[in-house]
Design a protein that fits this description.
The protein is an alpha/beta fold. The protein has two domains: about 150 residues, Rossmann fold (3-Layer(aba) Sandwich), CATH 3.40.50.450; about 90 residues. The chain is built from eight helices and five strands; from the N terminus they run βαβαβαββααααα. It has a five-stranded parallel beta sheet, sandwiched between helices. β1, α1 and β2 form a beta-alpha-beta unit. α2 packs parallel to α3. The longest helix has about 110 residues. It is rod-shaped and about 210 Å long.
Length: about 300
């Protein structure tokens, strides 16, 4: 069974609505209140009610008009009057009894001896016009029980938790947003860096291509100039060599002719041999330095000399 600190006693006829209102307000403010509408444990109803009263610190009784009228009824049985049993138990257990007197309520002149001491207890006048003031007076001046901290501050706790959740969500949102923006900025910077690198690479490639083209053009021009120079030099050298060979051959031919002219005896003048024989004239130009003509010419004088001797 739950541990209740406040017990509310009321007569259903005339006091239920007020008792229910007091119960809801106290429960909302964090108090632990027992109301007979709550589920009771299995067992005797009267015994369970008395157990709750004994465990409570405060006992609130709603005094509405006609609450004690049943005492004068002919078939009245005290054992069936739960309000009287509750008041008697609270007085006997010396609980903190708080009577709430509704409008137009007055104690009867005679009450049973077991509950007549309730008339000596200070009560709170409860009226619709001054209900809030009476309720605040009940909480602040009459009740011994203190509200449950968790229930009393439930709204504040909910508000606090909501605020913490909101702040945490806002922090996460801003953090994630900042992280996302940072990553987006980093991605943008990386993209710009890649673009700059591509631009630099393209510029360098173009420079290398221009340099390679310049080098190739220069090399081709230099090769062409060198080839032209070599060709010119070769042609010049060939021409010089040809001229030298030609001059040498001409000079050699002239020397050979001169030697032949010096070594050969003058021909005998005859009418028929006024001109040199065709064989001797034609054979002389055709002789080359490697032919054996000069040797024969050189041997003829010796033969002539020997003949002379």
């Amino acid at each position: 069974m739950s541990k209740f600190k406040i017990f509310i006693s009321y007569r259903r006829k005339g006091g239920y609505d007020t008792a229910k209102l007091i119960y809801e307000r106290l429960k909302m403010d964090g108090y632990s209140v027992s109301f007979d509408l709550d589920t009771l444990e299995n067992g005797n109803f009267g015994n369970e009610l008395q157990k709750r009263i004994k465990k409570c610190k405060d006992f609130i009784i709603i005094l509405n008009t006609g609450i004690f009228d049943c005492f004068t009824e002919p078939d009245y049985n005290p054992k069936d009057d739960w309000v009287r049993i509750e008041i008697e138990c609270a007085l006997k257990e010396k609980k903190n009894i708080v009577p709430l007197k509704m409008e137009d309520f007055t104690y009867p002149k005679r009450l049973p001896s077991d509950i007549k001491d309730i008339t000596r207890i200070n009560a709170i006048d409860l009226s619709p016009e001054h209900f809030e003031a009476a309720y605040e007076k009940l909480k602040n001046s009459f009740l011994i029980s203190k509200p449950n901290w968790k229930i009393r501050h439930k709204k504040r706790m909910i508000s606090f938790v909501f605020m913490v959740f909101f702040l945490a969500a806002a922090y996460l949102f801003f953090t994630i947003n900042a992280s996302f923006k940072q990553k987006e900025q980093e991605a943008r910077e990386a993209k710009l860096a890649v673009q700059r690198a591509d631009s630099i690479r393209i510029v360098r490639e173009m420079e290398l291509m221009r340099t390679a083209d310049s080098i190739n053009a220069a090399m081709e021009a230099e090769i062409a100039r060198t080839a032209d120079s070599i060709n010119d030099a070769k042609e010049l050298e060939i021409a010089r060599t040809a001229d030298s060979v030609k001059a040498y051959m001409e000079a050699k031919a002239a020397r050979n002719a001169q030697k032949n002219a010096v070594q050969s005896p003058p021909p005998k003048k005859t009418p028929q041999q006024s001109t040199p024989p065709k064989n001797t004239v034609q054979s002389t130009p055709k002789k080359t330095p490697q032919q054996s003509v000069p040797k024969k010419t050189t041997q003829q004088p010796t033969q002539q000399k020997s003949s002379k001797k």
